[in-house]
């Protein structure tokens, strides 16, 4: 069964050109089923903070790490064989690379690719000037203001998919939005992938926690899109982590290879907590991260030349007082900008930073740290921004309130990335002629012509006069308003239609796979 | 009486070079009297988002506004005479300027200058790569979590001076931190200037609400620093607003001229709420702002050639739903970056953006909007960042909690502006040699050598594990912790020593001036 033939493979930039007016009109209609843009085409440059000389120093240090110290590829002889054949120096599981070798290998990866969604209007373009916002990934806990923190369940997982699907400001359904701990570990991936397909018609991510789970995830996309289509097009992403410092373990390289083999995109991500998995100094952590990601990206090309891959990165810092990891701090934000500069020299799509905070509540700390971190992703030129919405408590909690607050922020970032348009209309000389000194622009022809598309207007921020806010608005903070919003959104949610035959085939596959698996919790 | 002779007129860049270690050590000592750096020297480039071609289009539109529409200078014949003598086309109060004329006039203003503080260690350098954080300015209301919103008093005013003085992350005492409404309007400026001198030893701002109040403010600095010193050095700033669109009223130009005449720095600021005082489109608002500020800057040079002046700007947006002004939104943030590019072409110090939010509470909205706005000031290259700390409810409320939260954020921005240092130590190759693959950096020689200065560590953010936060920490949000912090800081505050003779002379002056003024409320 194939749905591939129905897919619009045309220019998705065109679809990205929905006007602000259309978006705004859509937003006014309600809180669900709002047609946003499928992804953003940035109209502001990246923020390049480091000089050519310093970039080269970092690259040279990365080359020295790769050539003199090397990286270990543990528990995956196939990967080690790939390296041998590619001409790397292999001693046991330790692999060393001559300068320039990995850059040459990754040159076969596309600088930009389309990830297809089951609704082709939601196909995302990853790379170049495109920006895709995707929910946070991987928390064991969820929380909301009513029930507090608790372990995530499949119901929570599906709720977050529904909230993401309902937001016009997210572009992607994400992957392990939270861990559904009420489903056995060895079967969980099937329910997660199915939930993404069932409750969202956007692009999504599959499992990476074991090679067979990666294979299952991909197999489900073959049922949905057709095997042929999947072999020719990216329809699923797998987010694989380096075991920093300088170790790739077999679970991850096997999943990485499973995605590459199927022509699907692995996202290669070292998570470097400075002082623990890498040096406490930014330049060294960046060099390490560059080396580790580069090796992972190259491995995808050895598995299948030309497979899409995303150059990923995740820098973090540490509290001197408590030894705890810290998030949304300035050093990783600044480091991300440098990662962006380096990734662009490799011509690979970038995943970098996201919306992180250590706060346990959707409070001022959460939004300040979250925005510092999120803006670094925007400025560094990240193309795929995982963790755009929902995280609290580092990476541990997915918050319902924070999720809708972050999604609203993603809306503001659409306007931010639109930059400043300079043309006769926006320069508004006619408005100055009309209004003149000492008057106002409120009813001017220029204002009437432009006001509907002029400014971002949050659906969560309070912009009322104090009296109205306190008397009619109940003196709420934004977290309270977010609490109301996610409930309304879930109440109004309608699932996007899914072909019955595809649905049944997916359920059959899941049932067969589960029957073949051991009972219990793994 | 003169204290000018005691002033260190040496290189204040040197003083800016306190190391991170010193700062961090200082921070650990407590919450008051922490020696921070007197100002920041930025180590990251500005974020230039617009092309040369588009910058020129904006400049040309500004030139057309100035030449064809012009600006009105109302109720100040001296200003109009200045323009006549300078060769502008004057019809009544309407003044039109030939292209290039104003740029030529402002060329005599310094691109960078020192504002002296009564403690020379706190002198600030304004211009170039220097960044100075100053408290918010001008709210009629104050609020804290215990007592809610109320009109500001002189006690509140002094409390905020004390909180600013105690923060190592602010550099300037500011001006009208809040309106002390318990002091008559016509006498208020004397108490405000005296409070800055008495409770802070940092640089500060004077009154602009009437020419004689500007003169009084400056006269008080002559008592403190000596008349000769003041004539040769900048010791006080005056923040003057354009009456946008395209009107300068006499109260403001007279104050502007009073500051310039005394060789003190006026800050020239159009406040353009898009759709009301200017076009709803960013490019037009920027052109207008550029034209209005340029005219104000030029006027200072006609009053006294070579007087210091700061090119200011304040863009804002509007809610389509309520018609209320909105703050911390993406369009003004992006517009500020363009203002920065234009100001640098004029080689004038820049004041732009600040920390703004419409929220009525120190919540997630407040910190998200505040940071978006504040980072735009950082990125656009603002040298003097007024409104760095305290605002809520647009410009209407000075919040005790928000003030210390913002001051803490200013600390993080010190690390942000430090950028990425690239040298052998930070590249850390020796650390990779020592640690190797699969181990950790926690106790490595490189970590031990660097960890104390590696990462920003907030005194307000919670970075504890969830259990510790909920059991020992009382499950607080950041606003609750901020509420505790400002009380502790005020309880521990010690006034910087002030020479008795100077203090008495200042009090004498105030008493004489007040006696000469009408009773009652103006």
Task: Return the CATH topology of the domain at 89-418 in chain A.
Answer: TIM Barrel
The CATH class label of the domain at 89-418 in chain A is: Alpha Beta
Q: Give the CA-based shape of chain A.
A: globular
Q: How much β-strand is present in the residues of chain A?
A: 5-15%
Q: Give the full name of the CATH homologous superfamily of the domain at 89-418 in chain A.
A: Trimethylamine methyltransferase-like
Mean pLDDT of chain A: 93
Distance from first to last alpha carbon of chain A: 32 Å
| Secondary structure: helix percent of chain A | 40-55%
Protein name (chains A, B): Methyltransferase
Pfam families (chains A, B): MTTB
Family (chains A, B): Belongs to the trimethylamine methyltransferase family.
Biased composition (Basic and acidic residues) (chains A, B): 1-13
For this entry, give a set of tags.
19 strands; 522 residues; EC 2.1.1.- (chains A, B); TIM Barrel; alpha/beta; MTTB_MeTrfase (chains A, B); four-stranded mixed β-sheet; six-stranded mixed β-sheet; homodimer
Q: Which helices and strands occur, and which strands form pairs?
A:
The structure is a homodimer of 522-residue chains.
Chain A: H1 12-15, H2 20-28, E1 40-41, H3 52-69, E2 71-74, H4 77-86, E3 89-91, E4 94-96, H5 101-106, E5 112-115, E6 124-127, E7 130-133, E8 141-144, E9 148-151, H6 154-166, H7 185-199, E10 204-205, H8 211-225, H9 227-232, E11 236-242, E12 247-249, H10 250-261, E13 265-273, H11 282-303, E14 309-318, E15 325-326, H12 330-346, E16 350-352, H13 364-380, E17 384-385, E18 391-392, E19 397-399, H14 400-417, H15 424-427, H16 429-435, H17 445-450, H18 466-471, H19 478-492, H20 500-516
Parallel strand pairs in A: 2-12, 7-17, 8-19, 10-11, 11-13, 13-14, 14-16
Antiparallel strand pairs in A: 1-7, 2-4, 3-4, 5-6, 8-9, 14-15, 18-19
Helix pairs in contact in A: 3-11, 6-7, 7-8, 7-20, 8-10, 8-20, 10-11, 11-12, 12-13, 13-14, 14-19
